[in-house]
Write a structure and sequence with these properties.
single chain; disordered N terminus
Length: about 220
């Protein structure tokens, strides 16, 4: 009989499709990336599925509260919160900034430019934070840039009107070069840049995206 999957691996279902693809290149740091991608996926669903902004804000406030206290003070039993405690101890500020960025999308539509920038900066903080967590501080800035590309592609997909979409597509910076330890960001950033160059089409799903993701996973470009 096959053994049951580890609780942390169940978190794959929390990740977006592009994040699951990127995880294939995570190597020995898979748990660090899984925690980050699963949090992004869970918080994103909370925001995008919120029927009332106030309810969404209350749920995000709970996550901020948990990320602000030591792991020993958090409730046990949630695989994601437990994995964050195991893999992100001392680096939770980046995860809290990610939550703040997602919260900006709960604002009145159409979103203001400052609100959209908060979302981009929240994802940027995650990229910078994972670089710090993986002892790649010299790559913190390019990691943030790659993460903002990812955010722009998602913003284009979530856009509620032309002004939001126009803002998302207003900058299509090239993918910065990142070290091997940050290869998952090369994957999501590269797929995002491709999406933006094609006027915001989905990052994955067409017949060529698997080949692009494979190339990015192998070579980072």
């Amino acid at each position: 009989m096959a053994s049951a999957p580890a609780p942390a691996e169940d978190l794959l279902e929390e990740c977006t499709e592009v994040a699951r693809i990127a995880l294939a290149s995570a190597g020995c740091n898979r748990a660090v990336w899984l925690a980050a991608f699963a949090l992004d996926g869970r918080i994103g669903r909370m925001v995008l599925g919120a029927s009332e902004p106030l309810l969404g804000q209350m749920r995000l406030a709970w996550w901020r509260d948990q990320l602000a206290v030591p792991g020993s003070a958090r409730p046990q039993g949630d695989p994601l919160l437990d994995l964050i405690g195991a893999e992100w101890a001392g680096h939770e500020r980046a995860l809290s900034d990610l939550v703040d960025g997602w919260e900006a999308l709960l604002g009145e539509r159409p979103l203001s430019e400052p609100a959209m920038q908060r979302f981009l900066d929240g994802r940027g903080a995650l990229g910078s934070g994972v670089a710090q967590r993986l002892l790649q501080p010299e790559s913190a800035q390019p990691a943030a840039e790659a993460s903002r590309l990812w955010a722009r592609a998602d913003l284009a997909a979530y856009a509620g009107d032309a002004s939001e979409r126009e803002h998302a597509l207003s900058a299509t910076a090239s993918l910065p070069r990142l070290p091997r330890a940050l290869r998952p960001l090369s994957v999501v950033g590269g797929l995002a840049g491709r999406s933006l160059r094609r006027e915001g089409v989905p990052m994955v799903g067409d017949r060529f995206s698997p080949l692009v993701a494979l190339r990015l996973g192998l070579f980072g470009r």
